[in-house]
Amino acid sequence: MIALDTLRRRWPSLVGTGLTLAVAVAVLTVCGLLLVSARPVLPARYAAASVLVRPVPPGDPEAFAEPRPWPVERADALVAGLSRLDGVRAAIPVHRFYAQLVRDGAPLGDARDAAGWSATALGGYRLVSGRAPSAAEVAVSSGLGLAPGETVTLLTAAGPQPVTVSGTVDGPGLWVADDVARAWTGGVPVIGLLTRDGAAAATVASAANPLVGGDGVVLHGDGRAVLEPVGDTRIRWIGMQVLTGLSALGAFVSVFIVASTFAFATRRRHRELALLRLLGAVPGQVRRMIHGEVLLLGLAGGALGMPIGLLAAAPFGDWLVRTGFEPPTFTLTYPWWLPLAAVAVGVLVAQAGAGAAARRAARVSPLDALREAALDDRPMGWGRWLAGCAALAIAVLSGVAASGADGANLGSYALYAAMALVTAAALLAPAVLPPAVRLLTAPFAGSRGATALLVRQHTRTAARRTASTAAPVLLSVAFAMLVGGMVQTTTAFYGLSKVTAAGAAAVVVPDGTPGLSDAAVTAARGRSALPTTLYDGPEPLPAVGIGTAEHALFTVATGDLSALARTPLDATPPAHELPAAVTSGFAERTGWVLGSGHPVSGPDGRERTLSVVAVVSGGPAPAEILLDRAAVRAMEPSALTPVVYTERLAASGPLAGLGARPLTAAAYAEAGSADDDRLVWVFTALLIGVSAGFGLLAVVNTMVMSTAARAGDLRVLRLSGATRRQVLGMLAAETSAVVVVGAGLGLGVALAALAAMARGLSTQLGVAVPMVVPWGTLAATVGVCLVLAVAAALPPAARRRSFSAE
Amino acid sequence: MTSTATVRLSAVRKTYGTGASAVTALDGVSAEFAPGTFTAVMGASGSGKSTLLQCAAGLDTVDGGQVVIAGTDLAGLSERARTLLRRDRIGFVFQAYNLVGALTAAQNVALPQRLARRAPDPAEVARALAEVGLSGRAGHYPAQLSGGEQQRVALARALITRPAVLFADEPTGALDSTASAVVLAALRRLVGAYGQTVVMVTHDPVAAAAADRVLVLADGRLVDEIAGADPAQIAARLVQGAVAA
Ligand SMILES: Nc1ncnc2c1ncn2[C@@H]1O[C@H](COP(=O)(O)OP(=O)(O)OP(=O)(O)O)[C@@H](O)[C@H]1O
Ligand SMILES: [Mg+2]
């Protein structure tokens, strides 16, 4: 293989590229392993139920909403039917609601919900001591160290209440009397079947199917894992975004680096390639030779990167669980094919990167072997212009999309925007960078001294080479700035906007609890919204309940908000009329008008007619459907309030023991209003870390290559009387100049994009959005680029033996 | 009409550029190179010698006339077909830059065979290197060889494929007289021992004297043909021609 023979001599110039591919394969291996390992896990509390029945889930799994539960009556009918089936020992409906133990104001244990006592059978849990709970009693996990008879505080959606421990159980969780649990929950989210010995789960499941009909889904075996908590599904989804984002970034940057390395190398080897053509290599052979080299390089990179990835996967997985990108049930698996697939992708990525260079190499004319041919600095073709401008357009569009997104989507859009921007920069660089370099080095024109003169002349005359070394610096700086700035601008804005929109100076937020109980809301004395979920068929419709105190926050376009409060609450049979206000955006989208009625199901599964009594406009609303707070509470007894907006910082005295704490608006905006923000932060840090890491590899790579390519120049300099120190000083100064040029351009690109994004946000939301520029990130990135570039440029020059005077 | 010539050019024209800046490098050149003959091409700088070689070797297309190599008319051949013809029937040696820097001498010699997907025979490679007096240098890289040694490696490479014709463009241009003599002797032996056809461009009457005949070019035209002359005679004829022109 000719490729192998020539590689043997040329490997020093390709070390950087090989390392890049190794890092890419390591990243792909880690992300791939974590992606295939991230699967839903059946909660232990259902482990003993070999068949489980649940209502039909929403069509869109990314809605992350619990399926619409069965109303209690429907569940009772199902339970009666299911328990009569052959092989079924018992059918147990699960009533689960928010509850947690507190002691001295601090959470006790991990349980954040409680179920009826009968549900212990579904987990196969048994009493360790004491007896089953009756009213005002609770059974707890034996691991908590509580003894029967002790009094503890149980925090529910209503507030804290003292209860007596009736007994301890050999599993995690809290249990109350069945009718207590039933009173806390609106509908039934799942029915578990305990089968008799010898009855096959599959047989029971198929017998249950006709009975349940279109009203539910019968699960058995591994299929039961879909019953994992919705929160876990959502976390896994976020984790998936992060991992695919990282993989895409790794692959993308590798293509970029391989492409530039091989473009450079092909230009340097022009005559050698011509000679091969002259000696009878057909164009296809030359192309295959380049691809062969890249294959070897990719395999070498893979051989290095794969074990690193395998070793790094477990600690990285643990870290993801700790940061909240994977649920605690996450366990790492090692399918044998995955590392191989990662190497294969690495090789493909390398081939894709080298494609252009290989095509260019195949076009080399054999005659060029006979000529002192100058390098072909062809002007940019129109195809390249077109592709560059298209990438630029995609970058702008993604930036606009990012400014409208939140959560993990924001990170993804920011990433796509940055990727498109970098592609555009790479494509347009030959046209844009040389004039930019000339412009930026103009200030040095007046300086004296040989070093300044040489630096200026070199960067100016070799504008193209300067451009190719400045490109990776541009990549690192623009990427870090853009991703960082984009996320900071957006989250800072959202955090603040919610508080200011509520006309508040401070907030009360949950402290060690998933949300605020009614007692905490009352004690906070502010404005809040109680979230719930309505259902249009199986599809969730997020809604919030508000009281009259909150009405003033909304601008009513048509109708009257006070009609919300006229919800008939105590009507039996259940109230059919549910007054609601909708946002003007929602009204436009769905065509719902004032006075119209729409069939929906409540969070308790009961059918109701939603009647539109008002349309509100302006400002960010907490949800698109507004209901009366009392109506929400009636339909969903264990709903929790996420935050209360207060006029001044609430006193902490009344909040004591309620799992709540006051914060100033500024502190709230900074800390992030939700866990989501923290996740976005970590996501951002990861993206910046990986992209900057790759960018720095590219900086080192191009510096090593370009110094090697200039050996001749440097030798002439040395022979014409420059001391070794002068040559090295000149190289260092020149490298710094190039880094500064690249950083300047990257800063320009990022600032332009950030400004456009801030303006987009402002017009979209009608509020002035300040642009946040991450100066710290910029300083760090440029600093590291500078140090690495100089460190990479000098050794090849210093080592060159031809420097020693002869 | 058939011809026994390995390479035949008839009324070949070659023009570089267009319009006012057009240069006619070959202006109706006809020549035949018979099997087993050694031809030198001479002429002033810019007279079209290199162009003639490139056209005869099928490296460049002609604007008029015909080039036939080993019975194959080059007109109408695809780039690929011309490459394959070059690979199988033609060898090259130039003034400089003959070798792939990343390959050893032996690997360079075996290169044409590997490009043709034939397994190179190490013994054959060693014999070819021995023939040009480089037995001990098989593992050296071009950067570790002198200019004359590099030329001889290129010769060995041309030798190993047994091409129908070997083209050499100023192969001794960068060498001193001793090194030139070694290279010329190797070329001569190729013709004598293997019946190789060789076409060599040179400025050096001494080198030209190693050939069977000398073609002289001036302004893209064939102006003289000298057979079996010694260096002094050749030099004299060239001066004559220059004076006449
Ligand atoms: N690629 C080219 N483009 C334009 N003109 C060319 C090109 N190659 C050669 N020429 C011109 O064609 C003419 C013949 O060139 P050629 O290289 O054949 O001369 P030569 O006889 O080999 O000269 P020398 O002895 O200097 O090598 C010259 O006038 C030269 O300038
Ligand atoms: Mg010439």
From TrEMBL, chain A:
Matching InterPro entries, A to Z?
Answer: ABC3_permease_C (IPR003838), Macrolide_Exporter_MacB (IPR050250)
Predominant location? membrane
User: Which UniProt keyword terms apply here?
Assistant: Cell membrane, Membrane, Transmembrane, Transmembrane helix
What the entry lists under Pfam families is as follows:
FtsX (PF02687)
Keyword DNA repair listed? The answer is no
- Kindly state one GO CC term assigned in the UniProt record: plasma membrane
**Which GO molecular function annotations are given, in alphabetical order?**
transmembrane transporter activity
Give TM segment ranges: 12-36, 242-265, 294-316, 336-361, 382-401, 413-433, 466-487, 679-706, 727-755, 775-794
Q: Where is the ABC3 transporter permease C-terminal domain?
A: 246-366, 687-803
User: What top-level branch of life does the organism fall under?
Assistant: Bacteria
Task: State the family it belongs to.
Answer: Belongs to the ABC-4 integral membrane protein family.
Q: Which PANTHER family match?
A: ABC TRANSPORTER PERMEASE YTRF, MEMBRANE COMPONENT OF TRANSPORTER-RELATED
Q: This chain belongs to which protein, by name?
A: ABC3 transporter permease C-terminal domain-containing protein
- Organism the protein comes from: Catellatospora bangladeshensis
From TrEMBL, chain B:
Pfam entry (one) = ABC_tran
Describe the location of the ABC transporter domain by residue ranges. Answer: 7-244
Q: Which UniProt keywords apply?
A: ATP-binding, Nucleotide-binding, Transport
The source's domain of life comes to Bacteria
- GO cellular-component term (any): plasma membrane
Protein name as catalogued: ABC transporter ATP-binding protein
Q: What Gene Ontology molecular-function terms does this entry list? A: ATP binding; ATP hydrolysis activity; transmembrane transporter activity
Mind telling me which SMART domains this protein's record contains? AAA
